[in-house]
Amino acid sequence: MEETVEETRDVSGARGIPVPRGERPADAAVRYAQECHWDVVPGTRLVAGPGADSCSCGAARCPAPGAHPATEDWQAQATGSAVVARRLWEGDPYASVLLPTGRTFDTLDVPESAGFLALARMERLEVGLGPVTWTPDRRVHFFVLPGAAPRLPELVRRLGWAPVAPDLVGHGEGDYVLGPPTRVGSHGAVQWVRKPTASNRWLPEAEELVGALAYACGR
After folding, report:
1. Which run of H or E residues covers position 10?
2. What pTM does this model have?
3. pLDDT tens for residues 46-65?
4. At 81, is the secondary structure helix, strand, or coil?
């Protein structure tokens, strides 16, 4: 499905990220289940207010308005079926899209500046990359094969970095990431830096990316 681009915003200082227009979270969730074979589950949603949008969870100071699990059993509700996903979002097509990690993928999460630096370097070296997202809290998520998150400290240690590299975080089993076009309060929407396509369907091992990411985080 080709996206319509409304504008391009430079969040990295060197790379513009297209802002998709028109696709509802419900449609994106069905597409992820159908085309990518990812598990999806609806989260909370933004509620329009007179002053500012609030979160459907009702918390006055919600740290992630419209972008977190709506129920405690969200992991059990997650589905890889496009039919079930369509049903889950029927009641609220604008509920956020949560992508459980530790199932078909983990993500390696780094600050925006480090993420774009590492991405540029890996592209020059023609490293095989999977999908990559940018989130409004200025983080970049690299999708890798599942099982990476628990091994991340050891992978970093082998490279000679401190046991926990600066701001290099793994998201694995029991966790989730936000799928585009989920909006996070007034901060904006999660966006694809590298969209999931047939060419990057086969995800890289974490070992292939950790070196560049740890180096970029340590600069």
Report:
1. strand 4-10
2. 0.88
3. 998 777 789 999 998 999 99
4. coil
